[in-house]
Amino acid sequence: MKHRSHLPLQEREARSKLIKVLRDQPFIAGGLVKMARTCGKAGCKCTKGDKHVSWYLATRHKGIRKMICIPRQWEQVVIDWVNAYKEITKQIDLVSQRCLERFTTSAKEGREKDS
């Protein structure tokens, strides 16, 4: 494989960010959902409309969607992990787009040479 120095600067930076996030941060593939619920206890404030608000992690396991309630003490940690995953997918998309551009340019040049 060629050294990365031949790659465009934007792609090299995206690859570096991707490797750094993968190496340094835990991540979870999923999304965050804020839900308001009632607990079912008689006389609770939620029965009068002031519902309990909590964060849920929406993820998939073997193709089945799961909603996992995030305890308050874990909220910021899980939010950071989900944000790390979003950064990973953003950098992968950027690198993939640059590779696609190189491929289409090379393929087009190859077709022009054949003509």
Record the SSE blueprint.
Layout: H1 9-24, E1 31-37, E2 52-61, E3 64-69, H2 75-114
Antiparallel strand pairs: 1-2, 2-3
Helix pairs in contact: 1-2
Task: Write up what this structure looks like.
- α1 runs antiparallel to α2 (75-114).
- This protein has helices at residues 9-24, 75-114, and strands spanning 31-37, 52-61, 64-69.
- The chain starts with 8 loop residues before the first helix and ends with a helix.
- With 115 residues, it is α+β, with helices and mostly antiparallel strands.
- The chain has two helices and three strands, in the order αβββα.
- A hairpin with a 2-residue loop joins β2 and β3 (64-69).
- The protein has one domain (4-108).
- It has a three-stranded antiparallel β-sheet with strand order 1-2-3, with helices on one face.
* Count of individual helical segments: 2
**How many domains is the backbone divided into?**
1
Q: Assembly type of the shown chains?
A: single chain
- Supply the helix-strand structural class: alpha+beta
Largest sheet descriptor? 3 strands, antiparallel
Q: What order do the helices and strands follow?
A: HEEEH
Across the major sheet, the strand order is 1-2-3
Ends distance = 29 Å
Average pLDDT, all residues: 88
Total number of β-strand segments?
A: 3
Percent of residues in helices comes to: 40-55%
In terms of per-residue confidence, which ranges show pLDDT below 50 for 5 or more consecutive residues?
none
Coarse morphology: elongated
Question: What proportion strand?
Answer: 15-25%
Radius of gyration: 22 Å
